[in-house]
Amino acid sequence: MFFYCGCKVEIFAPKLSYFVLQKTCPGEAESFVLHFPALETAFIDARLPRSRKKEVNNKAHLELFKMLQGLSRVQNLRLSRRTIEVLTEVPGILAHQPSPFCRLEALKIDREENSLCTPQNVVNYFLSGSESDREYERILKI
User: Fold this and answer.
1) How far is CA 57 from CA 54, 64, 70, 73, in A?
2) Whole-structure pTM value
3) Which of 88, 134, 86 is nearest to 108 (CA)?
4) How far, CA to CA in Å, does 27 sit from each of 2, 4, 23, 137?
5) Burial class (CB in 10 A: 0-12, 13-18, 19+), 79
6) pLDDT digit of tens for each residue in the chain (142 aa)?
């Protein structure tokens, strides 16, 4: 799927059970609105382009958070190391965003052997929305 700058992508898929998003932020699409009420598993690999890594683009980060809200019903969520980097680019943004993940049962975060640990505020953001016992697992990717 290819998107042009400035477009809005809205997907309503009430029976979708598996979703993968590999996207470069700031992105091809201006806005993502996702409606996946039966989503069981999702993998998100959002990343910043190398040429703009030092610039902080608040709008792109806010759009990522808005897109994540569309995954609020997911049960098993896997995030790439690059997604974690994007989420930590704007300090303090997670403190102002309540966790939308009401059904999350398992959170898996890919990381490389020598990479830094996932910041606790990122883990808290994903796990604090559900009342059930949750599994948190880091997948070691070499």
Assistant:
1) 9, 11, 21, 27
2) 0.79
3) 134
4) 11, 9, 7, 28
5) buried
6) 445 556 777 889 999 999 998 877 655 455 778 889 999 999 999 876 655 544 546 666 777 777 888 899 999 999 998 888 888 877 677 777 788 898 898 899 887 666 667 888 888 888 887 765 566 666 545 3
